[in-house]
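Record type: monomer structure entry
Structure origin: computed from sequence
Chain ID: A
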Amino acid sequence: MPSTVKDPSATMSTVASKSVSQLEDATVRFCGDSGDGMQLAGTQLTNTSALAGNDIATFPDFPAEIRAPRGTKAGVSGFQIHFSSSEIFTPGDTVDALVAMNPAALATNLQDLRDGGVLIVNKDAFDKKGLEQAGYTSNPVDDGSLSGKYKFHAVEMTKLTRLAVEPFGLGTKEADRCRNFFAMGLTFWLYDRSMEPTLRFIEAKFGKKVEIAGANTAALKAGYHYGETVEAMNTQYQVAPAKLVPGKYRNIMGNEATAMGLIAAAHLSGKRLFLGAYPITPASDILHELAKHKNFDVLTFQAEDEIAAMTATIGAAFAGEMAVTASSGPGIALKGEGMGLAVMTELPMVVINVQRGGPSTGLPTKTEQADLFQAVYGRNGECPMPVIAARSPADCFDAVQEAWRLAVRFMTPVMLLTDGYIANGSEPWKLPELDELPKVAVTHPEGTDNGDEFLPYKRDERLARPWAIPGTAGLMHRIGGLEKQDGTGNVSYDPMNHQHMVNTRAKKVALVADDVPPQELDGPEQGDLLVLSWGGTYGACATAVHRVQRTGKSVSHCHLRYINPLPRNLGEIFDHFKTVLIPELNLGQLRTVIRSNYLVDAIGLNKVQGKPFSVAEIVEKIENLLA
């Protein structure tokens, strides 16, 4: 919790003359130009809410352009945070408070603000040019279209920020960069958040630049005091702390959790971690995060292209390291031939696909789940790989460790699917005790000088071959992409051997189903409707099902971690439900897999808009099917 400070304005306070409304939860969105600091504003509100003890879920929304023309809709950046006094799984359907820094931000985000919600705009940005760029024919600040529908506050943020930072001698451009801190301060007052964590951030980030630190501090306090004193803002909102499982928590993003999970897996298996990657949105932060942790014996290699990243990863696996590569859909396509080589050589590694909107370059900064077919089938020949999927930002920590465990036990590359929504979103993460994490057993054959022939493809009960470290005495063997003779590993063009090896590699992957837990069910074991989900749709599906269950209707929920092979008891679960609904951020890829494997006439709820499902969308579909 924040420490006590001398400045009373830095702590939570309520002005006696203003009413206070107690809320169970609240959803706030900051939006503005990509250079307006909206991600920073959202991150600071997130951290402050986490320190206040709330459960949180966030959804950053980035423009695809690195720097779109200022004031245009294409350049709008947003950050949504949902904080609550109870457990939550999504960043919120509708927005309770929207802070829009310019007309383009208002135009692209207003539809998500609920009726009667709080709307705060930077009045100074609503000039003729800004209105034209956003497509407005009249000024919504003045025409009455907003004040009747929302708790509308047009604030002269630019003017007030410049006045607040005037003593620090900044130029106009530098002064205007402090507007996000004014917006932060105003929002902190609105939801009775402490300024102290952000004041500490300013000191740590800008402490050596006295003028900048002072200006940002002044702007933050000016926004807070504006809310405190202006008569038009007559209500302050409070959200009590959530009752979370006791422990030490921190806020964590999906890519960050993936990186930490990789470091933990390497430690638990006694291996050096190697990541070979080429920068690509939205997976690059895995590379960035791991590059910070060389002290944990992490080696990161930024390759010249995706093919080099993949083949370097194969080389690291052959050398006996914990080998990982990370990319997104377009990069995974380029890695396809290399993944085939990894399957043929039967070497353990993890391939991470942080999915985004496609095809081709598609929607680089938007989320989608359209790479399931690519993950399961997207290589030439009969080329099976286990595929698992994380369900939330914090879950990435556990999911990537499971991917490595399976890779080692079955001597195979394993693909982990996340997506942009998970990768960039955040939630509280309870720090685990290291001694409670399961060890990953790794064995290598010992060297020999007795002249016995080493059989690199001699298999154990899981059909896994031995992981021989190159240079070990007596373990010399062939490696490569040509078909192998079973046992010896010699190149073989024999038709029956090829049939045998194809069957063996497929059976090995199928045996993974016997090594993972049976599928769990949330709700009654039989009933009218089963909602089946995977990946980042977990939060919306779980929340929707729980909401409908509370009305007494017959619905249960299954969420898949294991995509290939599917859980061994999944068919039995299907047998006990009349209807199966599969919500996906694609056109029905899991539904196709389920239909082909189980002959279940599953119904799809499909969305490819670059945005996650809202809870309301899934509730509506469930209720229609149960009507």
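Annotation 1: The two ends are 47 Å apart (CA to CA).
Annotation 2: The CA atoms of residues 457 and 486 lie 6 Å apart.
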